[in-house]
């Protein structure tokens, strides 16, 4: 048995329960991991609410797909890993099959990345989902190049901050957007070349001005909803508007027809496009590890909560005031 977060019905943060639950033994291709830190992601709040891309198969349901810890035991067919090894757990699996909001959890070894001594547990739980998402979209799918401009919405999120660092690493120009002035200075300090305050500025006009009228080669959008039209107007011909989240909670139009049918590429992106492709994951992990080694990549952690305070952590996450990643520790 291990302390585990579960929910017995859909709802707000208060449906989360910290309970003793059976852990089980690792089967073929699986590892039992003692969890030292859990990375919290918007996907878990959506899963808990019943509005994620998949629904809970049954109740009580577990949740969580990103963590750091130490391998306690291994099943068969787990070559390359050892008991006692420090690892990070990355999101390769469905939360209907595994969940890491717990003191101990069984996970597939395909979701494990060796954690170097220089990366502690909190960092190890905060780095992989954001950087894999940003790199997978901008570099692996988009092919971002030096001199390209990437507009990054909800830039104070963990993924947004990772995207800023990755764009800088690859010689591109990151333009951050945020709703109010309160986070502008922090975003500039985090590496944004420019910051657009969406509650005060004309998003399209400002981006076109910053790019000399060319438009941005990429828009990397976590908000979706009606705002995609303003972004689409500011995307360069043959640029890509990535949608990797839907924070607005509103219907998202396809604006191409209303804008006169420009050469607009608009697509969704999910981190699983990288994490469930062995070759893409190998290359992305090597790129991110190189940035961790030389200090170019540093995950920003907003707050660390106790796992017992997971409902409070979810309320904070849904409040949208954080700057960077939220982490919980058992």
Automatic annotation (TrEMBL):
Q: Which organism is it from?
A: Glycomyces algeriensis
Record has Magnesium as a keyword: no
| Classification via SUPFAM superfamilies | GroES-like (SSF50129), NAD(P)-binding Rossmann-fold domains (SSF51735)
Record-annotated Enoyl reductase (ER) domain positions: 11-328
What name goes with this protein?
Answer: NADPH:quinone reductase
Domain of life here?
Bacteria
* UniProt keyword annotation of rRNA processing present: no
The molecular function terms in GO held by this entry are: NADPH binding; oxidoreductase activity, acting on NAD(P)H
Q: Which residues form a coiled coil?
A: none
UniProtKB keywords: NADP, Oxidoreductase
Family matches, as InterPro entries: ADH-like_C, ADH-like_N, ER, GroES-like_sf, NAD(P)-bd_dom_sf
